[in-house]
Recover the amino acids of this structure.
């Protein structure tokens, strides 16, 4: 039936053209953003999952920063401990030399002056072994904690190693000197004990530094894998979308032509009255 009031063919053609335009708009959006799920309206479930994973990635970044800061603090403590170890070796040499009973007073005094200079240098190293306001070897910090998980519920703890003179590790007194052969001989034994204790402390710090480094590498890999997972969920296949764009543009042109033809059909009613 020919009618000027109702053109069903034009309605169908317009529906198809609107559908094609909607698909074309979606494809162009994917090409522009590089994402097939750019907002919740694209796919609410996938968007929610991706946002949760993005939150984890952001958390991993904070964890890496925390691990790096703590690792640097421990490394400073290790460097200071190694320097102190070298000084103790030199002090043992001076003490052993001063223990020689055949030395004159002035000769032993020379050894003593060198010994005290090395002793004071240990104190200087300990007071300056600080990173980011934290000193792990002067007994001012009980421990330092680094974040280990994206939700902040897990940490890696590094305990303080008190390397102050006269402490439990460096048993050599802060006022130690080589006033006599007997005192110098006793100092040799004390320094050897301090060296053994210091080596154990350095081993503990070294183990902690290794643990921080290993976990930092793991967090970096975990972050990379998570980002890849997000990409798998939301990234668009640009090669596929490009091919789809060409097809939709062709469909759009054909839809316009189909609508134009359908609009002309109502004009056929005029031929009945000629």
């Amino acid at each position: 039936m020919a009618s000027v009031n109702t053109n069903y063919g034009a309605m169908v053609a317009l529906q198809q053209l609107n559908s094609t335009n909607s698909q074309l708009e979606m494809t162009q959006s994917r090409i522009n953003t590089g994402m097939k799920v750019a907002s919740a309206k694209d796919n609410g479930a996938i968007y929610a999952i991706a946002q949760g994973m993005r939150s984890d990635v952001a958390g991993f970044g904070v964890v890496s920063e925390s691990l790096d800061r703590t690792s640097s603090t421990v490394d400073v403590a290790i460097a200071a401990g190694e320097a102190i170890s070298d000084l103790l070796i030199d002090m043992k040499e001076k003490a052993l030399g001063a223990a020689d009973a055949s030395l004159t007073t002035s000769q032993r005094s020379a050894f003593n002056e060198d010994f005290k200079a090395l002793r004071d240098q240990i104190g200087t190293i300990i007071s300056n072994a600080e990173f980011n306001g934290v000193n792990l070897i002067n007994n001012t910090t009980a421990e330092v904690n680094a974040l280990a998980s994206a939700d902040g519920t897990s940490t890696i703890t590094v305990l303080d190693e008190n390397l102050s003179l006269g402490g439990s590790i460096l048993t050599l007194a802060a006022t130690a000197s080589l006033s006599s052969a007997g005192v110098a001989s006793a100092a040799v034994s004390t320094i050897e004990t301090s060296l053994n204790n210091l080596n154990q402390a350095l081993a503990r710090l070294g183990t902690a530094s290794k643990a921080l480094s290993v976990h930092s590498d793991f967090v970096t890999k975990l972050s990379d894998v998570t980002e890849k997972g997000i990409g798998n969920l939301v990234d668009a296949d640009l090669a596929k979308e490009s091919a789809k764009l060409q097809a939709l543009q062709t469909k759009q042109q054909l839809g316009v032509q189909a609508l134009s033809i359908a609009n002309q059909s109502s004009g056929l009613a005029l031929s009945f009255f000629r």
